[in-house]
Amino acid sequence: MVARNRHTTVREVRDLALGTAAEMVAGAQGLDREVLWVTGLRATYPLFPDLDAGHLAIGSPEVARRIDAQLSLSYLINELARAQAAALVIDETPSQDAVDLANELGLPLFRVPPSSDLRQLERETLRAVLDREGQEARMAEEWRQSYHELLSARGAGAVVQRLAEEFDIEVELRDTADNTLQCAGKDGDGGHLGKRMADYPVMVAGRELGCIRVLGLEQASSLLPIAARQAAEVCALEMIQACIRQEAEDQLGAELVTDLVSSHSDVEGVLGRLTRQGYDVSPGRRHVAIALGVTAKRASALDSIAAGLESDLRFAARREGVCTLLLGYQDTRLCLVSFPAEVSDQRVRSWTAQAAGPLASRECRVAVSRAVSGATALPQAVQQALACEAMGRRMRDWSGPLYYADLGLYRLLLGLRDQSEVQRFYSDTLGPLVAYDGDHNTDLVGTLAAFFEQNTNASETARRLFIHRNTLNYRMQRISEIVGLDLDSADTRLALQVALRIHSLMGSGGFVVQCAQDGAGIPRYP
């Protein structure tokens, strides 16, 4: 007997040697029994030479009956169970009594076609028992080659389909953001509830690109993990190519956006590059730029979210003759939309809201520029969308897409070029109060903001801040003393409200910083 690290089970013998030709007719509860050896039925006594516990028996009941009519299949099952045999393989259809007995005793009973060469089957089964690792390695190589040919001819989807068909299971190819790229199998419903599943990582040079997920493992073959690992290894080739293409497209997209908003670039040359990428810049068209940003939690899913937004946008505007182009730019994605001049701003807002509305949340920011006329105005639309999205990162509440046209006073602040004057105005008005809060760990800036948000209604402000009216009056007096301004003056109130808007744009540091290379005015926030 050959020593092995672990014994082969009846289930593994079925998968490695018996194959699909062997039908299991009874004793499924014994599939995990260990198989130590294989013994064939002989035409002389003893019928199973050297039979011992853990042996898998193979033979024709007809041969036994020729020796002695009393040697029924039920008798053989009883004797094998008494000897603690692992399983029995026969070449005839068993009687119901024999099936019931095998089930009762927990002895796995398999039936192969009457034309089967039992001697050859015995040798193949013994080979599987003695060299399970070698058999698995050979099968793994066969699967790898088969899947590689499928990948070359028809792509990863065909590999997923083959794996699902071979093992009668559901299979999904998923990326690291847990998005389903390909799926195939029994139901195709994508539902995982109540289904046993396992994930097999798709790895390249230590980098995980996704996984092969298999569902419906209740009756799965013991060879499934081997095949699934080969499928994952092969699919990695296509996924790494997709990653390389995406990274190249992101780089090209970033360069294109940078050139688009640069005051020193050749606009006609940039528009030519857009045309070569399939974007319609023909005369008489209007354009909108949509910027998409996400939180760090959703960063890995940014590309798939952006692709979904573009798809939903095309669907919402399917009757408008739109043309779209998705570009990557730093940590955002930019969707350019070209449409006929006769499409109204109201219609544009309608289908951008329909496409972006479900996405806009605390984790996803969707910002929409004004609609501009002519492709030469695209830089303006791109700057507006990026500025709007960047400003949205500082906003407390985000519900639905943020439109540049709705920014009100913020548009003036974002458009200012003399940043030093803006900083000086801020320092002269709100600066002392900000400094006081920092030194005394107070929030008088928040009190002032709440006061204006409640239209200077002191009672409502006190209620909003959960403080007494007298406490509010004391705070407002201190604010007036610190800033050195009369809060009853309309001009003072307007100045302070503008300063608060600047403060919301500043965050914890400086105001809007010009684009590092060309001063295009794309906002950056610390």
What percentage of residues falls in helices of 4 or more residues?
Answer: 40-55%
Largest sheet, in brief, is:
6 strands, mixed
How is the quaternary structure best described? single chain
What form results from the Cα inertia axes? elongated
How far the N terminus sits from the C terminus, by CA atoms, comes to 72 Å
Radius of gyration: 36 Å
Put simply, the count of helices is 19
Mean residue pLDDT: 82
Strand portion: 15-25%
Describe this structure in words.
The structure is a single chain. The chain is of the alpha+beta class. It has 19 helices and 17 strands. The protein has helices at residues 10-18, 61-67, 73-82, 96-105, 118-130, 132-154, 156-167, 224-261, 267-276, 302-316, 345-356, 378-392, 409-415, 419-429, 431-440, 444-453, 458-465, 469-483, 490-506, and strands at 8-9, 23-26, 34-35, 37-40, 55-58, 87-90, 109-111, 170-175, 180-184, 197-204, 207-215, 285-294, 323-329, 332-340, 364-368, 372-373, 402-403. Helix 7 packs antiparallel against helix 8 (224-261). The longest helix has 38 residues, at 224-261. The radius of gyration is 36 Å and the shape is elongated.
Task: Provide a short characterization of the protein structure.
The protein has 526 residues and is of the alpha+beta class. The protein has helices at residues 10-18, 61-67, 73-82, 96-105, 118-130, 132-154, 156-167, 224-261, 267-276, 302-316, 345-356, 378-392, 409-415, 419-429, 431-440, 444-453, 458-465, 469-483, 490-506, and strands spanning 8-9, 23-26, 34-35, 37-40, 55-58, 87-90, 109-111, 170-175, 180-184, 197-204, 207-215, 285-294, 323-329, 332-340, 364-368, 372-373, 402-403. The chain has 19 helices and 17 strands.
